[in-house]
Amino acid sequence: MKQIIVALLCLMIFSSCTKNFVETNKDPNQISDESLKQDFNLVGSPFSNLIFNLNGHQIEEDLCYDSWMGFMNTPTDFVGNVNNTTYYIRWNTYWDRIYGSVMSPSKQVIELAQTNNLPLFATWAKLIRVIGVSKLAAIHGPVIYSNYGSSENSILYDKESDLYSLFFKQLDSIQADFAANPNYAGFTKFDPTAYGGSIPKWQKLVNSLRLRLAMRLSKIDKVTAKAEGEKALSDPAGLIETNGDNFTNSLLGNIMPVAQICYQWDDTRMGAVIESFMVGLKDGRISKYFAPVADASMAADHPSIPYKGIRNGSYIKAKADHLPLSKVSNDFNSVTTRRDFTAAEVAFLKAEAGLRGWAGAGDPKTNYENGIRLSFADWGAGGVDAYIADATSKPTNYVDPVDGRNNFTAVSTITVAWNDADNNELKLEKILTQKYLAAFTQTLEAWVDFRRTGYPKIPHVAKNDSNGDWGVIPADQWIKRMPFVNAERTGNTAAVADAVTKMGTGAKDDIATRLWWDTGGPNF
Amino acid sequence: MSKFKMLLLFMLIANALLAQNRQLSGLVIDSANNGVPGATVKVKAGKAQTVTDADGKFTLSVPAGNIVLEISSVGFAKKEITVAETDNNVSVKMASSSEILSEIVVTALGVKRERKALTYATQQVGGEELRKAANINFVDALNGKAAGLDIKVSNSGAGGSTKAVLRGNKSLTGLSEALYVIDGIPMINNKGSQPDTYGGTDGGDGLSAINPADIETISILRGANAAILYGSQGANGVILITTKKGKAGKTSVDINHSTVLEQVKDLPQFQYRYGTVGGDYSWTAPDLTVIQPDELINITKSPITNIQSNSYQKGYIKDFFRTGATITNSVSVQGGNDKTTAYFSYSNISATGVMPTNKYSKNNFSFSQSTKLLSDKLTLSSNVIFASEISNNRPGAGYYNNPLTGLYLFARDRDFNSFKQNYQVFDSSRNLYKMNWYSTEEKQNNPFWELNNDPKLQKSSRVIASVKASWDIMPHLRFEARGNIDYNNVTRDSRYAAGGNSVTVSTTGSWSYSRYVDQSLYSDGILTYNNTFGNLSLTALGGVSYQKNHFNDGLTFGNGTTAMLYPNVFTFANMPPTVIFNQTGYTIIKQGAFADVQLGYKNFLFLDVAGRNDWASTLANTGNQSYLYPSVGLSAVISDMVKLPTAISYLKIRGSISQTANEVPFNVVHPDNVINNAAGGIGRPSYKPFPDLKPEKIKSNEFGTEMRFLDGRLGFDFTYYNDISTNQFITLPAPSGSGYVSQYINAGRITNHGFELTLTADPIRTKNFSWRTSINASQNKNKIVELIASNPDYQVGGDNEGFASIIKAGGSFNDVYIYHFLRNDAGQIMLDANSVPQKAPTQTLVGNVNPDYLLGWNNNVTYKNWFASALINGKFGGVAFSKTEGFLDSYGVSERTAAARDQGYVTINAIKGDKGVTTIDPYTYYSAVGDRNKIMEPYIFKRTNIRMGQLVIGYNFRPKNANPVIKNASISLVGRNLFFFYKKAPFDPEQSISTANNVQSNDIFGLPPTRSYGINVKFTF
To answer: According to DSSP H, which parts of A141-159 are helical?
Structure first.
């Protein structure tokens, strides 16, 4: 009998033990919301991750538009030299970063901001979302945005025209919230950027972002583009006009991606396209962007400027072949921040806005030259006056020291010096060529501009592996977009089909379909 | 050989001691007075024994004086008779039929049951059978010896992990592996990490801590029905290990030595006659000839020609592997009196693998004792196992940091010997050594650099200690209480020297380190009541159990490719500041209360009703943390109920229905925030809280029969089972409205049904010659009936570098999808404008890796003192996939590509535009199919294979005198995995690179198959 009692006792002890189950099932490495409330960290602490994840890494940037636009290219024959850089899609992951690390946590943050009565944090999170999704939309076209937050299994994508309307509307409301609270200091502790929580500085970013997005629509929807552009130019909070106002983000202790890919993995080198421009135009920033080759024979075609890049979409026979070419500057190994939106970009946007006759843009020449000066100053490069005055130097032809199949003749014959007598087309080419050269390490907008206007003029890929799998890019064309991601294709099939119809008649979910604002028509 | 001479000497001594014997003759008959052939006649407490002839007659040399004879035979109860000093002719009548089947079987919780009362399938394998071929891993040794047990062994050599699945995969997220139980107590089997496509090393599992020499017997409880008393842990069946215990009587000492050599066999077919100049490949793209000479600038760094030569080095791949050796020495001592018994054993294993620099050593101690107190009413017993294992450079698999990639893909025109001798070169610019290799590909290293400069260490020290008290409170009523602690201290340390492959190793070297403790506490208390009331018998037990598993308690970190501060200094202080030292560990508490009542009628009809309630901490806050499941079974011994034809000596039928539950993982109910970078950024939880999480549910039905014919010489055991798993635990992308990235849901319906069959026969049973044979066969059919009802296209798993292991409704677990050629309706391969074969747009189902049928055929033959055993293992059906072959083809190093180059083309049934194409350039063809992510159609093979799994031939030295110093000695030659009778895959599909779910029967630069052979010597004092 006694033992039965003992057994029963055990059982009673057990049922009281189950009270510890909740604690037992907690991971000691995780932090509860309750614990994060200490020192008021709960709502603000996720922001550094939200902002950090606006930027991609190797497979999102280096092997995509960094390569397609000729800033960088890989010496590695990834997947048998058939990969994103040669127009055969192997990696397509920015979508996951935006939805997984920006949209999803920001939804929680917005809810926390509301329940904790910190509405300006919700505004801040919404701005981060606009930045992130506007980047994603420049890659895929239609994306999930207005319906994000639906509990339906199938979530429809936004048509691009609707998406941009929504961006502008949200920027209105964000700017209004900020304008009403210019001295709010709540962000200071959590802001990982150079803005240090200053609302007026974030307001400049809002206006600059509006100008960037307006310019994307400059050909497809001239009315909206001009209205929104002028709104940005006239907003009292102003734009990012000095390098001190640059939107510069913390790497959170990580090494700069391009340095990691280059120095640690030996998977990226200088691009041949930017070599052609910088060497040809005698651009002083080249030593700030890149490291000279150690073996002078690699740059035998221009030994006085010993930098050598790899062609966009190169033939790569073996990884070792192109490794001796130029790395990025060693400085990138020690930087702790990266540029996200610079005064130079704003100046070039204003220069183009001036060409397009947008009120408040100012004189294109001034803005153009100011953009170059801002960029040189930002990178600490010398010789800007001579550079701006140079009316003769032109991009050079490219010679691959190890594989002649990658050689190309410079397509662009642009010079740097502004000439008021040039027609608008040539002026636009100059502006966008310089905007391109200033965009190093933040290159997505250069790909946008190239698709929108055809500038700067760059060569085609040497090796074009596009085929029916992801869409064929003809020999006289360049990649137009990234396909929707496989998880969406298989898990949200109907919505993807709907999104394809939203890209217009004849559109396909491939890399050859143009985005909405990529009209292929004349620039003016 | 000196050992062999010693044996001979012992034999001579034993013979010399044969004195003063007398000849005894006799006859063994059954109840119908027919002679019983093949019965064993043995002198009790002596070694003299013989076997009756076809008429049941025997003669035996026995010691002078009164003796006791033991007579035993399958199908009859063992019998002892006393033979007087003067009696030289005896006649023994054996009782046949059902009482012989009062065989006692160890069942769940260590409870012993009469076999005939069991309502579910179980099979026992004796320890001797497991040790026969000198296996150091008892799970590997079970292969083919029990029906329905699907065993996969990692090809990572000694100490590697295994996977044993009974009745198919029941869980999408779990491993569906059987629970291992030692003497009634569940054992931790916390697996280390497993290699995948990209690389890695098998982290081993907890089972290598068990010394096969300590195993008395293994019971396999195949279904949830049998294992219900273990609760959710037993849902995938149980492998019950009963360890050896001391026996009252004279102390005996067993000494065992084995040396087993291991050799690589069945290497891929390589070519050594084609090469090129420079480059990573052993051939050249034909399109290079198109380049105009004036465009060629410094082209010497790229290959220019496709060269054939007879002077390339050959054989270096075969020579790379060495002959492995596993030396095992063990000793055990057991003995005691009627109050106290004890057992002690020690074993040492020292192994060198076929992969150079791979070493493994293990020391095992175990000690158990049992003491009876309080007029034998209280028995206290304890058992301690200590195992210490050290493994160096266990071979891995996959692309990265694997010596086999560089070895196999080595460009044939280069000088392998110089890379072998100078695997490192001094880099004066850094004042350190760097790897010397011609290729900087991410997946290639100099194999010798990898072996010598990238040491991998794994250490574990494990103690399993248990105590048990058993108290006979009153007649028929017993209380047992057990407590157990299982403690395992594990260190994993992989170092990669500076100067290695820059994609995977930082400029100053890389270090991956983890150190943790697994600790499991288990206790239970069980009250048992056992009585008979006239025709009725009652066995009832009730109990409670408590288990607390605290796993991975420690830390892990790795600097990856971020440079350490100083090169080749592997200390915590040398880690770069961005490295996060991750604290690891999780705790799971499980509590159970269980009861089992068995009613018997006239000892031929049994009803078994069992139930268990579990409380699981992983389900805290869901309202489902407490869950109950029942089981009911019936067994009837028909042969005792009605008169059957005499040919049928035994017939039993049984059936049972049960329901159990599978646990869910730790911390999925409400995950919290994490710090996810060195700057302290907070990552919000990405998984949606799951407040109504339910355990996975398994309903299991099984029906079976056991029959014996011809006085038990032929046995037959058949089970049909049908399992339905529901409430599967599935990860899905969360609806964006939730604010989370992913969510868990309970959904799905997986069915497994099949049969298990064991046939045993004694075809020959004569005085000098006996042959026992058994066949274990089984089939399992798995079907994913439903995953997500509202989303029928939903699938788990996706592309993994060219192949996909996909789980979706309508399919089965481990379905393999790969890319086929793009073909037109006529079946012709469609070539693109450059004459390259095109790939189908989507992946196609090509089969399932799991075999349709498992077959093991085990034979034991004795002839006088000789014995032999042969095990033939077959797996039928299923597919296997070799990415290795794909790589060899694309690099032009496979014999296939050389033969194609000899011929000048590959035959193809293709079409380009509207023109038929019958031949294609070998380079173009193999570049389109080989490597990763391409058209993998040519690399799918049949998994079916039949092998000589085990072959043993030996001799028993039986001393003939009554009281010899050496009571028994034997020597045997053993061979394992000797050769294939049939195999289509270019590798061994049963030796897996990983014991994880998703890369089964898939070779990605895994160690080639090996065969083992050796010698096994045993003495009993």
So the answer is: none
